[in-house]
Each structure stands twice: as C-alpha cells, then as structure tokens.
C-alpha cells in the first residue's frame, strides 16, 4: 500500500490567471510543492502565440529551466480546451482539424517539458444539437488524437466534467463508454472529485471499473474550493486519500483549487489547502 505525502502533490495553476508564471512557481516553492501541472493558457503558455515549432520550443525550454531551477518538475501538461477555438464534437470540420493540430503540438510540447501526460476532457457538444451525434463526433476526434498520442508515447487522462460544463462525458458511465469506443491503451482516466460527487459516485467505483487505467486525480473540496473550506468534511477528504493508498496509487493528487474567488490572492488559498493537507489530514513533507 502506498503512502501519499506532500511530495506527491501537484498543483494546477488556473487560479493564478492574474499572475505571471514565475510568481506561480515561486508561490509553489514557498509552499513546498515540487510538482507542477502546467496550465496551457495565458499568462503561462499558449501555443497559439508562436509562429513555428522552433519559437514554441525555445519558450518551453525556458519554462522547463525555470521549473527545474526551483527543484520542481512538470507532471502533466493541461492545454486549455474548454472553449473557443477548440472543440472535439463541433460539426464544423475546421474546428475539429484545429483541435487535432493543437493536440499534436501538445504532445510535442510535453516531451520538451519532460513529461509524458497530456490532460483532456470531452468539452461540450452544442446544446441544441443531437447529443448522440456530438458524442460520436467526439469519439472520432479522440481516435485521431489518441493515434497521435500512441505514436508520441504520451498518456492522455480523460476527465469527466460537470453537467453545466458538458453534455458529453459527465459520469463514470460516460468515461467508460468513451474509453471503450476510442479503444486506445493511451487513453486513461482522470477522476475529478467534484464532478464525481455531483453525480453521487464514489472513488472506489472508478477503481472497480477502470483499475490501473486510473491515472490522475483532481483533488479539491466541493465546487473546487480550498480543501477544508467546503461541504465535504474531514472524513470524506481523508477517505479519498485512504482509497488511493489502498489501491497503491503512485501518482499522487493534483490540487484543482479553481474558482474566480481565488484570483486576487491564489497564494493564500493554496497555503490554506497545503496547511489542511499537512495538519488536518496528516500528509508528511
């Protein structure tokens, strides 16, 4: 059975959207966080800013050097896709081709960053379109993207979303169907605990359904709030950790403290989360 410590905690930087990437890294260093979930969006890094592969690679090398200079590493790359100009299920073929190209770049970028995971979710189909047709288009797009992932030797954890975010993959059964229909060994599972709770599901069910296909965990309190400040309570928050340890989960947890209420002072929000993990849940390190 594994023991999860603070050295196994990654942090996604979405709530640092009003701060520089260097500030985010310094904030993590002050909190003793070694693992970085690189959010692929402004003001951190957006591939669309670069005219060619060479320019993007030069930027990514600088990013990696900044990370490693602080004794940190990038554990997963999360290119932003929940919105225009990317979508996996839009009937516009130009949108689909742009999205596929974006992920081809993302896989190359991950190698430059020194990591082998690129995050994905289903996005949403058009709400006034036939949901089944949108799901089928998403499957078709994922098959192309996952062929590229296999060629690049990249693992692609798929997160389930909340119903307000998506009408496609929002539950365990949606994840199961997507994995089965895409049929790629590189498509893995990212369990978002908030989305899981919205569906009334349990973390144990994901391990029963997917076993070692569970690759990544988005950890937070309810509504992606600071850990310890929401509705879940200590027993539930500790129970998530206990379940991971019982399944000998080696990839730790990825903190997704992600709400606009934290944009002004994201460091304090993450400092309180780290305090709770250490002092209330007993994570060492």
Automatic annotation (TrEMBL):
Q: Name one Pfam family in it.
A: AP_endonuc_2
Q: Which InterPro entries match?
A: IolE/XylAMocC-like, Xyl_isomerase-like_sf, Xyl_isomerase-like_TIM-brl
Q: Which residues form the Xylose isomerase-like TIM barrel domain?
A: 27-279
Q: Which PANTHER family match?
A: HYDROXYPYRUVATE ISOMERASE
> How is this protein named in the record?
TIM barrel protein
Which source organism does the UniProt entry give?
Olsenella porci
């Amino acid at each position: 059975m594994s023991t999860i410590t603070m050295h196994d905690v990654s942090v996604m930087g979405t709530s640092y959207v009003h701060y520089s990437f260097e500030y985010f890294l310094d904030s993590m260093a002050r909190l003793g966080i070694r693992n970085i979930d690189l959010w692929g969006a402004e003001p951190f890094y957006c591939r669309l800013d670069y005219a060619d592969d060479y320019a993007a690679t030069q930027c990514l090398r600088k990013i990696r050097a900044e990370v490693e200079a602080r004794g940190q590493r990038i554990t997963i790359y999360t290119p932003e896709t929940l919105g225009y100009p990317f979508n996996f299920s839009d009937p516009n073929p130009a949108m689909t081709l742009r999205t596929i190209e974006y992920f081809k770049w993302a896989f190359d970028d991950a190698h430059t960053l020194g990591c082998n995971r690129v995050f994905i979710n289903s996005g949403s189909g058009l709400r006034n379109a036939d949901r089944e047709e949108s799901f089928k288009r998403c499957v078709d797009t994922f098959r192309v993207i996952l062929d590229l992932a296999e060629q690049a030797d990249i693992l692609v954890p798929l997160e389930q979303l909340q119903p307000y975010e998506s009408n496609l993959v929002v539950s365990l059964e949606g994840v199961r169907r997507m994995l089965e229909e895409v049929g790629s060994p590189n498509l893995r599972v990212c369990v978002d605990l908030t989305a899981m709770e919205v569906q009334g599901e349990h973390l144990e069910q994901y391990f029963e359904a997917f076993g070692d296909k569970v690759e990544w965990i988005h950890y937070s309190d309810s509504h992606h709030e600071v850990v310890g400040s929401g509705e879940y309570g200590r027993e539930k928050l500790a129970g998530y950790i206990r379940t991971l340890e019982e399944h000998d989960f080696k990839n730790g947890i990825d903190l997704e403290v992600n709400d606009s209420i934290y944009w002004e002072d994201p460091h304090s929000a993450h400092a309180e989360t780290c305090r709770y993990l250490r002092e209330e849940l007993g994570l060492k390190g």
